Amino acid sequence: MPSADPLTPERILEATEDVLRRYGPAKATVVDVARALGVSHGSVYRHFRTKSELREAVTARWLTRTEVALTEIINTSAESAPAKLQHWLAALFEAKRHKAGDDPELFATYIVLIGESTVVEAHIRELVGQLREIVEEGVRSGQFAVDDPAVAAQAVFDATARFHDPAYAAEWQNPSIGAEFIAVSELLLRGLRA
Amino acid sequence: MPSADPLTPERILEATEDVLRRYGPAKATVVDVARALGVSHGSVYRHFRTKSELREAVTARWLTRTEVALTEIINTSAESAPAKLQHWLAALFEAKRHKAGDDPELFATYIVLIGESTVVEAHIRELVGQLREIVEEGVRSGQFAVDDPAVAAQAVFDATARFHDPAYAAEWQNPSIGAEFIAVSELLLRGLRA
CB 3.0 to 4.6 Å from B153: which of A136, B105, B131, B159, for a disulfide? Predict the structure, then answer.
């Protein structure tokens, strides 16, 4: 729907997500996005120089939402490092599971976008970096005994792939998945403890 | 090539694997298998009643080869349970990595067959059952402290998915994968230890 609001990058990204959901990633064009906003496609290109730059930006925005929510666990919580780690892993699983379950079409769209994008590597680096902060905090407080926090963080991320990698999305509705998640995360926590 | 040897199930399965590799799972037929063996398709159907029964059998045979190799680690080794577990996980990773790397076409064929088959569930049950035996042995020897060996075995299997699930086959040639495998398996071993 055309609007008199100024054309911000955020408004373009919102419209792009909507157009991608409606037409699918194979068919959605910049002209569709411009039409949805009631502007010329030239106005969209002033903010995003190419179609692929626009798609990268919308994928990055989608991934960043999860990162921001997880950062809050690291920064605001008064929990111990082990509790924070448990909490962070559960929040990551929940976030991914919700994205997959609440709007399966949009999720499928983003899986296609992620496949053609390099932003997912930055996303994984960010998540492993957050895990490393928690591990380092636990080492400082004497609750974790770990030789190399970067290696341990990567190992925790790899070992929980079943609970955050979209390749497993089909299994996230299994009745046993919650118990399996708890078993893996508790085993990893025991492995980190001093 | 026609042969005068008696038509055993094993010979049919070998010929089927060969036909699947050559024609691909979408095109391979029972007639192709019979022709490769120099027999009528009726002779093949005497051993495997349907095309899908034949495909299930060839998939099961492929998966069973890995299971048998791993059983030997459990049965013949004089290692402690922790060493055995490390050894078993490394052997599973090696077996899968070899299957994927040595003959990528056959591997891709089996991924298709596995997708249409139920035998993979039995394969996973067998592997988790073997892990459970090792965990139980470690509990008996006092080296592992675990509430429920079945739950722990499933957790170890799930946490090492990156190193045995064919969904990750493309990453098994990464230079860092060996170090990542060691980091995950050592973390899990620490988590199991008494």
Answer: B131
Complex prediction ipTM: 0.88
Asked if B192 and A187 come within 8 Å (Cβ–Cβ), the reply is yes
In the chain, the amino acid numbered B134 is I
Q: pLDDT tens-digit profile of B7-29?
A: 999 999 999 999 999 998 889 99
Residue from B185, B190, B193 to probe the interface with A (highest A Cβ count within 10 Å): B190
Q: What residues in B contact A191, CB-CB < 8 Å?
A: 186-191
Gap between the Cα atoms of A74 and A69, Å rounded: 10
Asked whether the beta carbons of B131 and B151 are under 8 A apart, the reply is no
What is A55-192's CATH topology?
Tetracycline Repressor; domain 2 (1.10.357)
> What residue ranges do the domains of chain B occupy?
9-47, 59-192
Dihedral sign, Cα of residue A22, residue A92, residue B182, residue B148? negative
The reply to whether B194 touches chain A by the CB within 8 Å rule is: no
CA distance B97 to A95: 31
| Chain A contact set for B190 (CB, 8 A) | 190-192
Residue A1 pLDDT greater than 60, yes or no: no
CATH architecture classification, B9-47: Orthogonal Bundle (1.10)
Question: Residue A162: its chain B contacts at CB < 8 A?
Answer: 158-159, 161
